[in-house]
Design goal:
Layout: H1 9-15, E1 23-26, H2 35-47, E2 53-56, H3 62-68, E3 77-80, H4 82-93, H5 101-117, E4 122-124
Helix pairs in contact: 3-5, 4-5
């Protein structure tokens, strides 16, 4: 699913899951000095069914670890979203200044491997 920021990708992906139980993986980082970002996060949280379990995976290793640990009987997983996860990887690696390619490659390889090992149904928003 492709689209720009605030294009409705999250709501569309959420609508694809009709299961009572879903693990919603939020990759956004919280910034204490950004009330507008907190408000956007709150809107996302408010529209999710109460039966969905939210996991915040804001560190680069959090998402691969969660996907690798899944079992076949686990509820579907919705990752929101890969763009935000990748921005965190780039931030942590200092990539905006031209460094960190080895660390970025390691985290991306780890994510690809964990997706291949994920045993639960997996939905994700690809980078827009």
């Amino acid at each position: 699913m492709l689209g720009g920021a605030r294009s409705g990708k999250s709501a569309h992906a959420e609508g694809l899951l009709t299961d009572a139980a879903v693990t919603y993986v939020a990759t956004a980082r919280r910034y204490p000095d950004d009330p507008d970002w907190d408000a956007r996060i709150a809107l996302h949280v408010a529209r999710r069914p109460s039966t969905w379990h939210t996991v915040e995976a804001s560190a680069p290793a959090d998402l691969p670890a969660l996907l690798t640990a899944t079992q076949y009987e686990d509820p579907p997983i919705l990752v929101d979203d890969l763009s935000t996860w990748l921005v965190g990887v780039l931030d942590d690696a200092g990539a905006w200044e031209g460094d960190g390619t080895e660390a970025i490659g390691h985290h991306v390889d780890e994510l690809v491997s964990s997706v291949a090992m994920c045993r639960a149904e997996l939905l994700s928003q690809p980078p827009s």
